[in-house]
UniProtKB/TrEMBL annotation:
<keyword id="KW-0962">Peroxisome biogenesis</keyword>
<keyword id="KW-0862">Zinc</keyword>
<protein>
    <recommendedName>
        <fullName>RING-type E3 ubiquitin transferase</fullName>
        <ecNumber>2.3.2.27</ecNumber>
    </recommendedName>
</protein>
<dbReference type="InterPro" id="IPR017907">
    <property type="entry name" value="Znf_RING_CS"/>
</dbReference>
<dbReference type="InterPro" id="IPR013083">
    <property type="entry name" value="Znf_RING/FYVE/PHD"/>
</dbReference>
<dbReference type="InterPro" id="IPR025654">
    <property type="entry name" value="PEX2/10"/>
</dbReference>
<keyword id="KW-0863">Zinc-finger</keyword>
<keyword id="KW-0833">Ubl conjugation pathway</keyword>
<dbReference type="GO" id="GO:0008270">
    <property type="term" value="F:zinc ion binding"/>
</dbReference>
<dbReference type="GO" id="GO:0005778">
    <property type="term" value="C:peroxisomal membrane"/>
</dbReference>
<keyword id="KW-1133">Transmembrane helix</keyword>
<feature type="domain" description="RING-type">
    <location>
        <begin position="252"/>
        <end position="292"/>
    </location>
</feature>
<comment type="pathway">
    <text>Protein modification; protein ubiquitination.</text>
</comment>
<keyword id="KW-0812">Transmembrane</keyword>
<dbReference type="Pfam" id="PF04757">
    <property type="entry name" value="Pex2_Pex12"/>
</dbReference>
<dbReference type="GO" id="GO:0061630">
    <property type="term" value="F:ubiquitin protein ligase activity"/>
</dbReference>
<keyword id="KW-0479">Metal-binding</keyword>
Length: 306
């Protein structure tokens, strides 16, 4: 007879629970999107869609975690939230903190990083007047680097999948029966996760290198623009007999900033956006923000010398 016991959930069990929760949140988000379009139409819908997704995520955890219940994903895998410091179910304060950080943590971290760290350091060591595009690239690099590094530690240790749970110290327990077969599967899983972690680490380094290269290009281009502006002492005037290259600004419909050097094209419909804006949008929606034509990240085209 095998002995029943509580143990910490492994990586696959936590991922299955998270995937189920994300699926349920996406269904709730779709319902809120349809409700908004029926009430207010499609005007400015792309501006408020991200807020509707946060609202759906907040409502989902409000009716589950904050009420002391399992989420659908946790119930599906039979996971139990656990506070290892006090060796008990997380308190209401811990659960409220975890949900708040999960829903609004990225906004808080963006504001703090941008205003207190990235902007002062960038202006001191790179240039006194960096473009908003360069600052956005620096901010996204730092956030992405932290998130990917955290995921690597999760695949390696299986402790915390989400940063909100890391900061609040909430782990998962699962009730199982220990057998020789389950022990063997656990050992194989550990080896597999180490291999996966090695692959993800290589991918992480390559993508970080490309992001840093893009930041360096953006800084260089902005320095050249500021140098030309100082030499001319006036605003640039586009004329037919100008000997310099003509620069036509393209305004991104999402952030309303010029996308001179990072223009991205959605090939299915021909609309153009900032490279970072359209990638962030398509990662969540897989549609064009303007006409809702289906697309995906791999099909977006980076326009050079547009």
């Amino acid at each position: 007879m095998s002995a029943a016991q509580l143990r910490h959930a492994n990586q696959l069990e936590i991922i299955r629970s998270e995937e189920k929760d994300r699926y349920m949140i996406s269904l709730l988000s779709q319902q809120l999107d349809e409700l908004y379009t029926k009430l207010f139409g499609l005007d400015h819908f792309h501006i408020y869609q991200s807020y509707l997704h946060r609202l759906s995520e907040l409502l989902y955890f409000l009716t589950t975690t904050l009420l002391g219940r399992q989420t659908i994903g946790e119930e599906y895998v039979c996971l139990i939230q656990y506070d290892p410091a006090k060796k008990q179910i997380p308190s209401l304060f811990h659960r409220v903190s975890m949900v708040f950080l999960r829903v609004f943590g990225d906004l808080i971290s963006k504001y703090l990083l941008s205003s207190l760290i990235i902007r002062p350091l960038a202006e001191e060591y790179f240039h006194p007047k960096l473009s908003s595009q360069t600052l956005e690239l620096l901010l996204n690099f730092v956030l992405t680097f932290v998130e990917r590094t955290h995921k690597l530690f999760f695949y390696l240790t299986g402790s915390y999948y989400d940063l909100s749970k890391t900061l609040t110290g909430i782990r998962y327990l699962i009730y199982t029966r220990s057998t020789a077969e389950s022990t063997s599967i656990e050992n194989k899983l550990t080896r597999t996760m180490k291999i996966l972690c090695l692959c993800l680490c290589s991918q992480h380094l390559v993508e970080s290198y490309h992001q840093l290269k893009q930041i360096a290009v953006s800084i260089s281009q902005h320095r050249q623009e500021l140098t030309r502006a100082n030499d001319n002492k006036e605003k640039k005037i586009i004329s037919d007999d100008s000997t310099s290259a003509t620069i036509v600004s393209v305004q991104c419909p999402l952030c309303y900033e010029p996308a001179d050097s990072n223009v991205a094209l959605v090939p299915e419909c021909g609309h153009v956006f900032c490279w970072q804006c359209i990638h962030t949008w398509v990662a969540e929606n897989q549609t064009c923000p303007l006409c809702k034509t289906n697309t995906m990240q791999s099909r977006i085209i980076h326009l050079i010398n547009y």
